[in-house]
Amino acid sequence: MKILLVNAYKNAGYFSRLRAKFFIPSLTLSQVAACTPRKYEIKIVNEWYEKVNFDEDCHLVGISAFTPDAYRAYEIADKFRERGIKVVIGGYHATAMPEEAKEHADAVVIGEAENSWPNLINDFEKGKLKPYYGWEKIKGEDIPPARRDLDNLRPFSSALQATRGCPYRCGFCQLTGFGDSIHRKRRIEDVIREFSFLPTKLVWFHDASLTIDKEYSKNLFSKIIESKIRKKWIAFGNMHILSKDTKILKLAKKAGCVGWMVGLESISQRIIDEEIKKKGNIVEEIPKMVERIEKEGMMVWGSFIFGFDNDGRDVFDATYEKICEWGISLAQFAILTPLPGTPIFQKILREGRIITFDWSKYDMAHVVFNPKNMSIKELEEGVRKICRKFYSIDQIAKRAFNTKGLFNKFLNLFANLSARSLWNFYFNKQK
Fold it and tell me: 2-133: what fold?
């Protein structure tokens, strides 16, 4: 039996294979493939850099999609079903909107797929496919290594996952609606084994945060050091850990860490406490965190969101000034997007402020609701303005020049240029 797995993307095939090599690799379908019995033939198509062949010889199609890519996922599903091929849809959007997804699929996977996917395949072969599968959490020690042999891109970096889940329940995050609040950890020896066989010198940890369990993290970093694995890696981390725990920073650096991605979200403590409800983010401690991380020879990549109820028109200039003052190596900027399944979606929906349910606009580059303290145009133009300033060629060059270490200089340069390219693409699409 032949199974086709598709990562749907609304701008299918936009990125060339060469450009796609620079982006953070996806793990989702490789992990689904890993829990598929080896007797089945599997092909993975990632629409970031390749298009689906609708004449593909297959018996079952599995599609994963984020909210802005939902319509593309439905288009793919409908075309294969026209040929009489059974289609399964999963991912964050399908989990939040299962009835909608079911209109275009023979079955919908809700939540994580590892435990339900083998049962789904078994039911498919018996001709008894159920309409819905899911909410079966996999234990950390049972998470299998990804099927990297199915990756036909050969990117410049690899992806790895040591833990899964996040207990913090931020109001805007789809992990909350995905039921992924239980933090689970893989066996360290399994992580080390997979890490050691990765084909690239640069690795991205896909964990929601690699510092949720400090002792686990320290043990993992120590084992990487003991194993003499000579790879560079980047991970998400919690601000309150990275700003205070010097030991974890020193171990991470020695284990090969070159950068930490941190969800700083806002320069307003009120917004963090009342709207995002993100525990551990203390704005006044950001300078100390940046200083400590950079002192150890690692970079800080921060993310910021605009459009909260307490954001005013001055938030863009104020945020830019703070970022420059703190010396953050790379910043990502997003328009607040009330994604289905999140607490913020429910709040804004109750208040009647959502202006469109066109999911293709839910890409963090479009405004899909009425902000409270600025107009839609002011929010869109404000994000464009800060992106233009931060991603200007002279500012990118300045940050790369100020970054310590030759490898980090080039990585920072490429990351900033990639972010500039991506945002230019989205802004041009809006015109």
Answer: Rossmann fold (3.40.50)
Buried b (16+ CB within 10 A) or exposed e, 313-339: eebbeebbebbeebebbbbbbbbbbbb
Domain map (residue ranges) of the chain: 2-133, 156-430
240: number of Cβ within 10 Å: 16
CA dist., res. 147 & res. 236, Å (int): 23
**326: Cβ–Cβ under 8 A, 6 or more apart, which residues?**
286, 287, 290, 300
pLDDT tens figures, 290-320:
999 999 999 999 999 999 999 999 999 999 9
The partner residues of 61 in beta bridges, in order of sequence, read 4, 87
Residue 421: pLDDT band (50, 70, 90) is: confident
Cβ-count burial 48-69 (b if 16+ within 10 Å, e if not): bbbebeeeeebebbbbbbbbbb
Sign of CA dihedral 300, 306, 312, 317: positive
How confident is the model at residue 429, as a pLDDT?
Answer: 59
Residue 179 CA to residue 131 CA, distance in Å, equals 20
Q: Closest Cα partner for 164 from 144, 134, 189, 148?
A: 144
Please calculate the CA angle 286-287-292 and round it to the nearest 5 degrees.
Answer: 100
Rounded Cα gap, residues 212 and 273, in angstroms: 19
Q: Are 192 and 57 in contact (CB under 8 A)?
A: no
User: What CATH fold (topology level) applies to the domain 156-430?
Assistant: pyruvate-formate lyase- activating enzyme (3.80.30)
H or E segment to which residue 64 belongs: strand 60-64
Residue at 275: amino acid letter? E
Written as one string, the DSSP assignment of 150-177 is G--S--SEEEE-SEE--SS--TT-HHHH
Specify the length of the chain in residues. Answer: 431
Q: For residue 115, report the phi and psi dihedrals to the nearest 5 degrees.
A: -80, -35
pTM: 0.92
Round the average pLDDT of the chain to a whole number and report it.
92
Contacts of 351 (CB under 8 A, 6+ apart): none
